[in-house]
Amino acid sequence: MPKLREVCHHIRSKVAGPFWVTVDLFFDGEEKYRKYRDCEELSAELFHRLYGVDPALVKRIPVDSLHVVKISFPRATPQGGMVERDMHSGQQYVRLLDIELNN
Amino acid sequence: MALQGRVKVLVPCGSLGSGVRESEIEYGLAQGANVIATDAGSTDSGAAYLALGKSKNNRGAVKRDLGILLRAHAKTGIPVIVGTAGQAGGDLNVDWTRDILVELTRELGISPKVALLYSEQDKARIKAFNRQGKVRPLPPLGPLEDSAVDSCEHIVGLMGVEPFVAALEAGADVIIGGRATDTAVLASYPIWKGAPWGASWHAGKIAECGAQCCLNPADGSGVLLTIDEHGFEVEPLSTSNRCTPHSVSKHMLYENSDPHYLHEPGGILDVTGASYAQLGERAVRVQGAKWAAQPYTMKLEGAAAGNYQTLMLVGIQDPDVLNDVNTFHDRLLAALYERTRKSIPAEELGEFHISLRMYGWNAVSGDVPVNVPPPREIGVLLVATASTQELANAIAHACNPYFFHYPMVMNKELPSYGFAFSPADVPRGQVFEFKLNHVVATDDPLSLVRTAWLDSDDNAIAA
């Protein structure tokens, strides 16, 4: 089973305003994009498990022209708050890298 | 008014103070730029800049960039538009930028007509709007509570294009705008000239971060937008750089939860039908964006200042600690809480919080690593949070001996961990948070904005 990092040429995360995080998955070519765009592994439940967010608020948006799947979700803790660990959410993508995708 | 010909917007940088390049300005002016427009900040770096009314970029850098833009204005007569002045766009941030501008106009011996747009909001007025049902929450926040409004140091409303258009209509040479959407700052001039709203807003979004939409974002600072009645073109101001359909369309993803629909004051930009085509070597032509007008709303941003924090940092290479970092973390944290409670009377201490961030181990993720060997060393950051700076400092002082010497193996000689500086504790000030994620409905796009003009003696006078 391939890992997400093996089917994407770039994966990044960033704040999208103070209350949201957005992750961009740049799939490596159209074939991989088509194959994994709708895969079950990248579920709202996964984002609930990894980031503690309400699954109902996870947005998954395919961008066909760029072979990108964008996934946005609310921050679990306030930006810059008492227990902030990543102000710009720039490192939040890392725990997605080794997610295994069913072939 | 229908657009006559084409409108060229010179976007000199992604944020005023980030480093405008004079050669790029010369290139843009030579291409016939009609206006220079840039934002000067955003919310990305957190609520501190709005709460404190401070800029993230330093004064010298902002003065340097603004000086280059003002000299371009003096040379050509084209307007200069700045939005979200002073990083956060609150009244203090606008006034900080105004003072730099005044200093520059005196040094340059010029007297442009300057409009100041203030979009800071009165708390009582926001609460009244809320009672009238005019305030609506955006996910993930719920209905607005008065306490959230009261907790804020400053509240701003994000301006759309209308206040900028009104200032241009009134003859402004230079506009220093408070908080506005990045897009609105760039879209305002073309819209004033009669360009299509879809193309203008889309162009504004693509160019909001300057050269970020180019193939090599590090080569150059800005871009030139050319808007016409059918769409727009974008090209780098650095002649060695290029835009490609991919580099341009990719920017719709950036710091944005939805790449297809952008909610802006007074409407939604829909780019689902947009097409991107290479134009010559360096430029990209974009067409097909639509603007759907909606009932007018302004998004609110409010920044609250909270408790105070004090930091301490040690480096640890001790093999006993690295042998079981998680256990060390838990034991040390428990010992620090106990020590603090023993050292400071409860009635004095109040509610407090201590956290340890194990840099090199799990400081960023917070997760416990699985099947990952410990590194050669870790940095342990202690963050003490309390209601005053003095208390946070006192907690750090109470924790200091344990943080310095707490052993992993109790019957061994006490270790000494690696402090980097003396004194060991660093008072870092308050915690700042955004408290609002709401929009306020207003029939009049200008009703929540105050415009002032600088008179010949550089005093701000109300419109």
TrEMBL record, chain A:
It comes from the Bacteria. Residues 4-100 form the DUF4387 domain. Pfam families: DUF4387 (PF14330). This is DUF4387 family protein.
UniProtKB/TrEMBL annotation, chain B:
Residues 65-403 form the Acyclic terpene utilisation N-terminal domain. InterPro entries: AtuA_N (IPR010839). It comes from the Bacteria. This is Acyclic terpene utilization AtuA family protein. It comes from Variovorax paradoxus.
